[in-house]
Write a structure and sequence with these properties.
About 50% of the residues lie in helices and about 10% in strands. By secondary structure, the protein is an alpha+beta fold. The chain has a 5-stranded mixed beta sheet. The chain has a 3-stranded antiparallel beta sheet with strand order 4-14-11. Strand 1 (about 35-40) and strand 2 (about 45-50) form a beta hairpin.
Amino acid sequence: MAETLNYGDVVKSTTYADDEYSHALFTEMRNNDPVAWIDEETHRPFWAITKHADVIEISRASDKFINAPRPILVDKAEEARREDMQVQSRVLIGVDGEDHKALRDLTKDWFLPESLKLLEPQVRELAKETVDHMLSLGEEIDFVKDVAVWYPLRVIMKILGTPEDKDEMMLTLTQQMFGANDPDIKREFSDEERMALFGEFYQYCMQVTNDRRQHPEGDLASVIANGKIHGEQISDLDLMGYFLIVASAGHDTTSSSTAGAIHALMQHPDEMTKLRDNPDLMPTMVDESIRWVTPVKHFMRTATEDYELRGTKIKAGEAVMLLYPSANRDEDVFDAPFEFRADRRPNRHLAFGHGAHHCLGNLLAKTEMRILYEEMFARVKSIEPNGKAKLIESSFVSGLKTLPVRIKPM
């Protein structure tokens, strides 16, 4: 296998749809070139960072490695297209410094454990409805398309206080953002159609915002709509970015982990038995499944000054790619990293990032997953594979796109 590994494959969407190849590649890089220079014709060059300790070091140095202007990896053609369209972005993943802190502070209290505790009854009701629907479909289902895609989306919609008739718009938006390179998911959008989709989203955001400013409720949309940044009412650009990151990232990453956990448990039946015999392991199993899937494959950072890492000099202006799936299989940190363990402790995974940009919604994601599995395992006698699982082709956010299963109810 080692002879066929190509470090440049870290830029390819297809790499992340092949677990065996991607992890062989990352292991080779960790062991032999953990700060690897990647210079492919299709992309601007960058350093690939594959060790857990190095990802933490760079993430902590948020003044020396910033998100703007290149928060994620896109090819040269896409960069040119965005420049031609004058696409502007003010989502959290592309903002640094005081602006980033101000935007996070706007909603950080909403995502605290005591706040989420108040939300649990609504999440549990959605979980029960999801299990009801799942069982109504019969014994043979696709767990991704019938369960994992919709449950986190409806939780997010409930949190934002938005009606279910906007589910399809949100799903399309998410798939275009995160799965656009996958041949089974992507739709050939023209620039005009893509702008129309984001235009529809913008108009809807403004409709919700105007309503919440006149009639604030206890939902996240009200917090965002009435927020102040540096003492001023949040701008339309920041407002759109906030709704966009909550609605899309909060949905797609959780969806990937939700399906990935079921897939991992079916691949490791002893761990499934362990979990059923010890329901108290649900929180650790959820954390392990998030490490196992690592739905966010990377973020990019740009050096603001010369920096030395493992004896390699990264020059000011050069970019680094933080490869989270690699960090989450680092043998120096995890005991038997290629084993799925429902009771893994400690579990210092980096699937939610680290440092200033650590995911705001990490506790919400884990709460959603835990509650769904509690409801599901209380009513499902067995769940077994019923066909081949397939992964999404995406170098940014990816997980399973299909997971055929056979379910036996209690």
